[in-house]
Design a protein that fits this description.
Blueprint (H helix, E strand, L loop, with lengths): L1 E7 L2 H16 L3 E8 L11 H6 L6 E3 L8 H22 L3 E5 L3 H13 L3 E4 L10 H10 L3 E4 L2 H9 L7 E3 L3 H8 L5 H8 L6 E6 L10 H13 L4 E6 L7 H14 L3 E4 L3 H11 L2 E4 L3 H4 L7 E5 L12 E4 L3 H11 L2 H6 L12 H11 L17
Parallel strand pairs: 1-2, 1-4, 2-3, 4-5, 5-6, 6-7, 8-9, 8-11, 9-10, 11-12, 12-13
Amino acid sequence: MRKICFITGSRAEYGLLSQVIKGVQDDDELSLQVLVTGMHLSPEFGLTFHEIEQDGFHIDYKVEILSKSDSPNAISKSMGNGLIGFADAFTELQPDLIVVLGDRFEILSAVASAQVFKIPVAHIHGGEITEGLCDDAFRHAITKMSHLHFVAAEEYQTRVIQLGEQPESVFLSGGLGVDIISKVKLLSRKELERSLNFKFGSKNLLITFHPVTLENNTSSIQMRQLLISLKKLDNTKLIFTLPNADSGGRELIKIIERFVSQNSNSCSFKSLGQLRYLSCVNQVDAVVGNSSSALLEVPSFKKGTLNIGNRQKGRLQSKSVINCDSNSESISNGLELLYSDNFRTKLQEAINPYGSGGASDFILSKIKGAELKDIIVKKFYDLNSS
């Protein structure tokens, strides 16, 4: 049987991939392999590989790469550790196709190793732009080392082809996050409150703020500016999800945890997991910060997003997204706009540019039916000669 190997290094990435993984697991003609790495294996980030196991998936291999630091030196060494670990994993697993999502450094190491092993790669959510992140370059590099491409919007399909990929290998699938929302039964408010051990109020916000990795030493300053604005809000409960293992992330975690310890209207979580995260989005008034999910999934709930700073600059956006600078005055103005009657009325008209669902089944059908013989040798698609 064709062995399909999914590689995941973060909670968000796994949540998006989960339905495609389940589809492979349930298919009698495919053999599922799951390889976990990165934050999944770190106690500091919640040992989220347990969530994968709780979902009924067997983990075939673990590649430990993270250190206890998130400095550029440490991240670079983690990428090197990844190359070593993935080499051992691929030697043992011998997959026929690797499936990856996104743009993180763990995935770049995995795909670079797969290139040397001559293993075909299916890449999901390529062609996107995030101008504030190292991940922007990582994503395009992963595209060039991949052989099947599943993109979330027509603009991204065009961009992947512009990178020289053959049009027949670039599939418009729509966003996986939108698809997940249609498949998950969300928790009620009471169920969610019990699970979080946190009581919602008359106003509630979900906050996720990650480092802006292409800016120098700005993330902690921006986080403090955000907290100044949040501190001013009246009668508002605050739910924080902690940052990823990016350079500067640990400093942000310390700042958030200090704030939560001093403000009883707030709580924080290393990992909410997919069900609790989406249930939170459904219950809060809006999502605040700079996460990709706030742009990709939240619009489907007809909820507002306050997108802060440059981290997500370049992504397609719904009209439900308000952009602001990373200073407290601009953030406070954005928060005020989120709660304005005019904006909240317009939310019902917002359309998610990442589709309306069906991505998981579409991707499954394509990876099952793809002709993998000779797929490794790629010819550059030159727009000037097409």
